[in-house]
Structure formats: structure tokens, C-alpha cells
Specification:
Oligomer: single chain
CATH superfamily of the largest domain: Cupin
Low-confidence stretches: 158-180, 388-417
Pfam families: Cupin_8
InterPro entries: Cupin_8, JmjC_dom
Number of domains: 2
Strand content: 5-15%
CATH topology of the largest domain: Jelly Rolls
Shape: elongated
Protein name: JmjC domain-containing protein
Order of helices and strands: HHHHHHHEEHHEEHEHHEEEEHHHEEEE
Radius of gyration: 25 Å
Structural class: alpha+beta
Distance between the termini: 46 Å
Strand order of the largest sheet: 1-2-11-8-13-6-5-3-4
Length: 492
């Protein structure tokens, strides 16, 4: 805290974090001597005992953070030199230390900025370095505690009895508790269903399978449908990355960072009757938290969802008939968890992933479509010869879920389209949801190769809360949320 003469007395928690960040480490050396000199200056300022000097430290940390951010934006993310991600992380944490060093005399704006920067260290840079992610979470906790004291708002707390109450029986699709906002597009060939979730993958060639209600009794299914619970689990001032617009292949799609509470407000607004518009002619934006490592930011939620044994089964092949050797993803324990949270109507276009996927539907319902890897020639992926034709200009007219825009492109669009075709060769240009087009052989919506070789072999299902889908690598899959939905994918 800050005394009347401006002297700053740090808490033991802040001192411990500063001590660990100041430990010698060669990871930042490639950033150059000028950066190392500025970091040394920053540590000296943080060791000074006065609030004005700490304000200088916060400014210097912001300068280093902008430098690191410029470097991160100068490369494709996978090619960013590790030293700049590390600098982004350390500058964020040191800036948060400077802002929180005043204790109860820190302003709420300083505390919110500290939370924001620590979240960004996790989301943008991945918080590389010994203990960095833990330091970020601890600084967030301290900043939120300060916000709670100053504004008398409710601090993050353990779930109460009403949060933990589970329904007497599993809510079924169409029941008042889980009313769907849209019907499933179609179920022509149901996904295979197993009676229970195995601990190990079957040997030999594999197909996707579904286990109904496998995790229906988990705390996640009981708690996450409550937006109030999600707010309390996150606490104030948290930020997350969201997709804005339709699916990521649609015109006008974008990404931005926004407050997690703001996202929950938007989801709540989507469900209020007559609240789908903001003013005359202005439609509410579609916001989707998609494929995000949310549980690194909110460990409380991670503890609500048990990981099925199957994700630790160490598959030796990719499940294909050729028995190809399988390389699992990186991540803690060889499992990469991502969250998918959004309103009804959000969609993932048909695409493939290189890993086994244990996909858990936690809240709401989703329609899923899957097809074997060898259907690729008929999927009209970006960059393929089929992706340039064979679709109506307005396929949305035959279904309620939209489609691919076939309008002419200008020079800029063609340039951007070339980038899309380079980076999205695992994504189909086709919208697999319009059932009417499948039943109309004369339609030009789908290429003949899709109608003859893909559609007859594709599976469909509606995933409900607690259902678990196990999907082998390289299988094509598309999903549509039929109502507000919270799902978790576990690549293993």
C-alpha cells in the first residue's frame, strides 16, 4: 500500500512474483541488448519505494509491451520468435505489478488494466516461461480482490448450494428447460451410438461414435447453463477473444477481444423475446467464443469437467485403414482443451483436424455432420478445383442456416481469397446443412462428386447436454448450434 509520503509497501504476494520474474533467464537475450537494458531499468524502478516511480515503471512496461506486440504482428503467429512472446508476457506481468503496487490506493482503472494485461499475456502470447501463467492468474486474483473491496461488488467465490443443485433427471431436447431455437437440419444417417464410453480406443480402423449422457452428471452440465455462475467463476474485468459475424469463411467475419461479462450479456440478450435488434434496422452482432483455451484463464471451470479416460489412451494410429503412425498434439498431458460458447445459429463449416477429438456437449444442443477422410475429393475444399463453382448465388434461400456467397469478387477480395485458400485447405467451401438440396438431384448447389460420394456416407446427430462424441483424425465435420451452446473439444 502507499503511505502519505508516497512510499509504497508491497504485499508478500507481489514481492514473490517480482523476485521470480527477476531471476536470470536467457530466453529474452535474442530480443537484443536495448531491450535487456530497458528491462533492467524497469526492475530498478519497481524496486524503488515510491508511487511516482512505480508510475514510471508502468509507462516503461507499456512501452515494452507495445514493442513486443509490434513484433507479434510482424510474423505469422507460428513463426514469431519465442523471445517476443516471452517479452510480451513479462512486460504484461511487470506492468500489472507496477499498477497493483499501491495496494488499496490503486485505482479501479489500474486494477482493470492489470487484469486485462494479464489475460492478454495468456491469450495472445501463451504466457511462456517458468511460472508465468500462474503469476498472471495470481495477479488477476489480487486485482479482482481490490476491485471487490473498493466497489463492494461480490468477489469470486466458491459455488453455493443453489449453484450445485442438479436437475432430477437429464433435460431432454425440446423440454422447457432446454428449449431449442431451431430444428436440426436433417438426420439421414444417424451416428453410431455406444452404450458407454470406453477407456481405450478400439484397435484397427475407426469410425466416430457417440455416447449419450456420458457426462450428464458432471458439475459442468449442472452449473454452466447458469450465466450467473459463469460470471462468478470468471470474476470482474476479464477479457476473451470472440469471433464476430457468421462462420469464419463468411464475408464480414472478424475477431476481437472483449469483456467476458459483455459476451455473457450478449448471450442473455439473444434469449430475451424481441431483443434481437438494437434500434431500427440494426441487427445484433453474432458473437462466438470459438476454439479458445478458456480453461487456462478460468481454472475453476476446468475443475467442473472430468476428463474421460479415453483422452489418456495414447492412440498409436490415426484410426485409418493404412495404420499410419499418429502424432498427438502438444499440451498438458498430451490433451488440448478448447471451449466453444455462443448463441443458437453459430456454425463451424465442414473441416478436418489432424488429431483425435473427444467432444463434450455441456450446455444446449448442436447438430453435427461427419464424413470420412477419403471424401476429400468431393468436399470442394478451399484451394481445390471444385471450390470455384457448383453453388447457387444464394443457397441460404433453401435453409435457415445461410451458405457460401457466390457473388463476384473485386481485386482485393481475390487477393484475400488467395490467402484463405492457402490457409484453409482443410475447410470445405460447401454448406452441408441445406437438406432440400440433397433431395433435388437437378440442383446445382452441390457438386456431383459430393452428391454421389459424400452425402450417402455422411453421418448426422444432435448432441445434447452430457453427450460425448469421439472423432478420429481427418474426418470432415460441421456443427450448428440449435440454441445457446457451450461445448468442449479435447484433442488427444
Amino acid at each position: 500500500m502507499a503511505a502519505c509520503d508516497g512510499t509504497v509497501e508491497w504485499s508478500a504476494e507481489l514481492h514473490a512474483i517480482l523476485e521470480q520474474l527477476e531471476q536470470p533467464d536467457k530466453a529474452l537475450s535474442p530480443c537484443g541488448s536495448a531491450v535487456l537494458s530497458l528491462l533492467s531499468r524497469l526492475f530498478s524502478l519497481l524496486r524503488a519505494p515510491t508511487a511516482p516511480v512505480h508510475a514510471q515503471a508502468a509507462q516503461l512496461a507499456s512501452h515494452l509491451l507495445r514493442l513486443a506486440d509490434d513484433k507479434l504482428n510482424s510474423f505469422p503467429y507460428r513463426d514469431v520468435p519465442p523471445c517476443w512472446r516471452r517479452l510480451y508476457t513479462d512486460a504484461s506481468l511487470l506492468g500489472a505489478l507496477a499498477r497493483l503496487g499501491g495496494g488499496d490506493h490503486a485505482s479501479d482503472d489500474e486494477r482493470r488494466l492489470a487484469v486485462h494485461d494479464c489475460d492478454m499475456a495468456i491469450v495472445v502470447a501463451g504466457a511462456p516461461g517458468p511460472g508465468r501463467e500462474g503469476h498472471a492468474l495470481e495477479l488477476i486474483r489480487l486485482a479482482q480482490a481490490g476491485l471487490a473491496r473498493s466497489s463492494q461488488c461480490e468477489p469470486p467465490r466458491a459455488p453455493q448450494r443453489e449453484d450445485l443443485a442438479r436437475p432430477a433427471k437429464r433435460a431432454r431436447l425440446g423440454s422447457p428447460a432446454m428449449r431449442t431455437c431451431a430444428p436440426a437440419p436433417y438426420i439421414h444417417r444417424p451416428l453410431p451410438v455406444l452404450p458407454s464410453l470406453p477407456s481405450f480406443l478400439p484397435s484397427g480402423p475407426s469410425e466416430p461414435f457417440l455416447v449419450r449422457a456420458a457426462l450428464a452428471t458432471s458439475d459442468a452440465v449442472a452449473r454452466w447453463r447458469s450465466l450467473s455462475y459463469l460470471r462468478r467463476a470468471a470474476g470482474p474485468a476479464r477479457v476473451v477473444p470472440v469471433e464476430v459475424g457468421g462462420d469464419y469463411t463468411a464475408e464480414g467475419w472478424g475477431q476481437r477481444m472483449m469483456g467476458f461479462g459483455e459476451l455473457l450479456d450478449a448471450l442473455e440478450g439473444e434469449e430475451r423475446p424481441g431483443d434481437g435488434e438494437r434500434g431500427e434496422g440494426k441487427v445484433r452482432e453474432t458473437l462466438y467464443l470459438a476454439q479458445h483455451a478458456l480453461f487456462r484463464q478460468f481454472p475453476t471451470l476446468r475443475r467442473d469437467l472430468p476428463l474421460p479416460d479415453i483422452v489418456y489412451s495414447s492412440p498409436s494410429t490415426d484410426g485409418g485403414s493404412d495404420g499410419a503412425e499418429y502424432v498427438p498434439p502438444g499440451g498438458d498431458d498430451g490433451v488440448v482443451m478448447n471451449a466453444w460458447l455462443g448463441p443458437g445459429g453459430t456454425k463451424s463449416k465442414a473441416h478436418t483436424d489432424p488429431w483425435w477429438n473427444c467432444y463434450v456437449q455441456v450446455v444446449g444442443s448442436k447438430w453435427i455432420w461427419v464424413a470420412p477422410p477419403d471424401c476429400a475429393p468431393g468436399m470442394a475444399a478451399f484451394g481445390s478445383s471444385l471450390s470455384t463453382g457448383g453453388q447457387d448465388d444464394d443457397p441460404a434461400g433453401s435453409s435457415g442456416f445461410g451458405g457460401v456467397d457466390g457473388a463476384d469478387e473485386d481485386e482485393t477480395d481475390r487477393e484475400e481469397g488467395g490467402q484463405a485458400q492457402h490457409y484453409m485447405t482443410n475447410t470445405s467451401t460447401l454448406d452441408v446443412t441445406p437438406a432440400a438440396q440433397l433431395d433435388a438431384p437437378s440442383s446445382s448447389y452441390y457438386p456431383p462428386a459430393f452428391l454421389s460420394s459424400v452425402a450417402p456416407r455422411a453421418y448426422q446427430a444432435v448432441l445434447e447436454p452430457g453427450d460425448v462424441l469421439v472423432l478420429p483424425p481427418r474426418w470432415w465435420h460441421s456443427l450448428v448450434a440449435l440454441e445457446r451452446s457451450f461445448s468442449v473439444s479435447m484433442w488427444f
